[in-house]
Structures are given as structure tokens and as C-alpha cells.
Amino acid sequence: MKSHKLKFGIGIGIILSVVAWEAVTGFQESKTYYVTVQELTNGKAGRKHIRVGGIVQPGSIQRRDGVLSFRLAQDALSIPVTYVGGDTLPDTFKDGAQAIVDGEYSAGDGFRADKIQAKCASKYQAVPGAPGKSTKDSKVATLSQGT
After folding, report:
1. What is the structure's pLDDT at 5?
2. If you count DSSP H runs as helices and E runs as strands, how many of each does the chain have, helices first?
3. Among 3.10.450.40, 2.40.50.140, 3.40.50.1100, 1.10.1020.10, what is the CATH number of 32-119?
4. Taking CA 47 as the corner, what is the angle to CA 80 and CA 96, rounded to the nearest 5 degrees?
5. What is the pLDDT of residues 56-83, one digit of tens each?
6. Do the beta carbons of residue 71 and residue 91 sit within 8 Å?
7. Terminal Cα distance for the chain, rounded
8. Where are the domains of the chain?
């Protein structure tokens, strides 16, 4: 009996070890470190596949023969980005938008992106101090004014 329990315990231990190993290596392969344009140009980002965030430099977006190129900027620094992909770009990708690009960087060739994400920081935010109440609040205000 003890030998069966021992074999069963060893088998369970091996299976759990393999599952844990697969989870850890899968997580390590899928994560990418987010760097700024300044970190990338200073050479601090010595990684093969990298993720960079910055602002799309106004007037730099060019589309030619299915290739999109633009400059990703931060303060006075910028890097050239080239994107050749089949994915549709987000509607928020425009001059001055915040963007995050995934891909590979080479100091001589620039950044070759395989994924682009963009957002407009002010598009979906409420205006601070703007008048307006929810329907519930306006009903309460109307009832209290009538009494």
C-alpha cells in the first residue's frame, strides 16, 4: 500500500512541477518591459523585443504602399517607427496621440513595430467641474424645490 501511495505522490509531484514550469516560462516569454523613448535612445533598453511609449510627433505620419511610418517622441527626443501589418490601426492614432508600440529596435534602422496601440488622453474624460447631474439627482432636486 505504501509503495502505491508513494508512486502516486511522485507522479502528482512531477505533473505539478511540469505545469508550474510551463506557467513560469510562458509568463516570462509573454511579458515585455515598457520603456520610454529616452530610455531607448540612451541604450538602457538592451532587449530584443521591446515595448515603447511616447507621443506621435505631429506631421510625421506617412503612409506609402501599405507601410506606415511616423516618429514617436518624448520631450525633444524622437525615434523613427515603421509598421507593416494587417491589423487596422485604432481611430485614436493621430498626430499628438499617446502611443505604445511593440516590436524590435535597432539604433541604425529605427523601430520596427508589429503592434500599435494609441489613445487620446482627453477624449473620454469628464470635464472637471462641468455642470450636470445624474437623472436621480435631478429628480431629487426637482422634488425638493417643489416643497
Report:
1. 86
2. 3, 7
3. 2.40.50.140
4. 30
5. 999 999 988 888 999 999 888 889 999 9
6. no
7. 83
8. 1-28, 32-119
